[in-house]
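Hi there,

I know you've been waiting on this one. I reran it after we fixed the sequence typo, so this is the corrected version. Both the input and the resulting structure follow.
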Amino acid sequence: MSDTIQNEKFVELNYKVIDEKTGDVLVTVEYPLGYVHGVNDVLSEQVTKQLDGKKVGDIIEIPIDTKLLYGERDESLVYTDRIENVPQEYREIGMTITMENEKGEPRNFIVTRFDDKTLTVDGNNPLCGREVVFRLEVLTIREATDEEIDVGGAVDADPDLNEILSQA
């Protein structure tokens, strides 16, 4: 039994997304990400290639081009409105508001600023336009069960995650 990451191994990782310029942690996981290596495409090919052959305790850092993931920042997706037009429950920095366009297509907007007169929302992904590093720490490597290989991850994980994985 190999203790290195390779195809059809069940792997658990912690990860953080770090702003290269400031060093600020922009995203961190609350619980380990578990997947079956070479079966589940929850991570980009760029990341999984870097994980090949790694061992428990190894840490890798991968610069991510957010333009490839999210496109260019689009300032037309930033809106400011008078505060009296915004319901009280949305007046919180970081709040996600889902709105629909004329075609009924949903898009998430995040409250980025508000004061006693205005509130601003941004429909760009929060990582859009930033230079970031994806930092992963390998926590667990083991043989995947046949069932885990079928679904691409842990069988006893959150049911919503399994539902998404099984439909992919």
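Quick highlight: Strands lie at 9-19, 25-28, 33-36, 59-65, 78-82, 96-100, 106-114, 118-122, 131-143.

Best,
R. S.
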